């Protein structure tokens, strides 16, 4: 029996207009009314998803979100942090050098604020276009301090520029960080071992929920650890091949209410087993 559903946003719960369909809302509301925990699991900070949480009635006591790709587990009603892993100043200095050498823009998220470092004069960041709900401010390395929280670093640039650059990143940095594409034009850096799967494992332990009682639904590379960790991994039909191959089940696309279809079939209808591909 599924007791917790972890759901990605972009390309999964949200359609291409960044909206939640009525069918998805109804399926989630029904699952919540049955006592199932509905957990948004995203790379975004809590500030950037509060509108969706309100829309889904997930701002009550007992509602949780996993943000920053597993770096934060938070209570939705108060924002209280249950679990947190952040980057150190030295990490930011290292990634600043990497971005500067590769002539790429570097943005560092500090809770709901994005610190924008001038690491590239030719390739400006497009992160403000991707996350309009966040506060953006220029930053320089000498302003780094111990009182600031550094949640993650990102490189946001057009895909035709980003993809060739990714191939140039030395392997040593993959040994130090989780380096994952979360969209075709967004590369994210997290502390090593911090993934959506890790965040779900922490929340599940706190709630006394077993892996086989968890469903995870996603579409992108950063969803892979979640899909692999949970008892029922569901990939969207629009998911990247890596995620589809790892999933237990492939549902419809984000334009076809794929989230609702999976929840209706395996949670609301309480069907046993989960074999087959849509």
UniProtKB/TrEMBL annotation:
Pfam families reported for this sequence: Hydrolase_3 (PF08282)
Keywords recorded for this protein, A-Z: Hydrolase
Keyword Hydrolase on entry: yes
Annotated InterPro entries: Cof, HAD-like_sf, HAD-SF_hydro_IIB, HAD_sf
TM region(s), chain numbering: none
Recorded GO CC terms: cytosol
GO molecular function: magnesium ion binding; phosphatase activity
NCBIfam families hit by this protein: Cof-subfamily, HAD-SF-IIB
Official protein name in the record: Cof-like hydrolase
Organism field: Enterococcus phoeniculicola ATCC BAA-412
């Amino acid at each position: 029996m599924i007791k917790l559903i972890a759901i990605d946003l972009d390309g999964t719960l949200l359609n291409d207009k960044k909206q939640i369909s009525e069918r998805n809302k109804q399926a989630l509301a029904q699952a919540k009314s049955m006592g199932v925990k509905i957990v948004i699991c995203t790379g975004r900070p809590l500030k950037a998803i509060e509108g969706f949480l309100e829309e889904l009635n997930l701002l009550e006591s007992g509602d949780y979100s996993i943000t920053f790709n597993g770096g934060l587990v938070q209570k939705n009603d108060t924002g209280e942090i249950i679990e947190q892993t952040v980057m150190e100043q030295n990490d930011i200095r290292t990634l600043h050098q990497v971005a500067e050498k590769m002539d790429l823009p570097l943005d560092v998220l500090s809770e709901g604020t994005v610190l924008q470092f001038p690491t590239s004069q030719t390739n400006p960041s497009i992160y403000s276009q991707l996350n309009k709900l966040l506060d953006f401010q220029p930053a320089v390395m000498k302003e780094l301090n111990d009182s600031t929280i550094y949640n993650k670093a990102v490189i946001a640039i057009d895909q035709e520029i980003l993809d060739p650059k990714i191939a140039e990143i030395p392997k040593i940095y993959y040994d130090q960080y989780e380096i994952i594409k979360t969209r075709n034009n967004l590369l994210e850096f997290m502390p090593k071992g911090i993934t959506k799967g890790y965040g779900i494992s922490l929340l599940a332990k706190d709630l006394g929920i077993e892996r086989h009682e968890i469903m995870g639904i996603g579409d992108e590379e950063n969803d892979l650890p979640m899909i692999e960790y949970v008892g029922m991994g569901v990939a969207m039909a629009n998911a990247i091949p890596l995620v589809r191959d790892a999933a237990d089940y492939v549902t419809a696309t984000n334009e076809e209410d794929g989230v609702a279809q999976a929840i209706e079939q395996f949670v609301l209808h309480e069907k046993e087993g989960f074999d087959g591909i849509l």
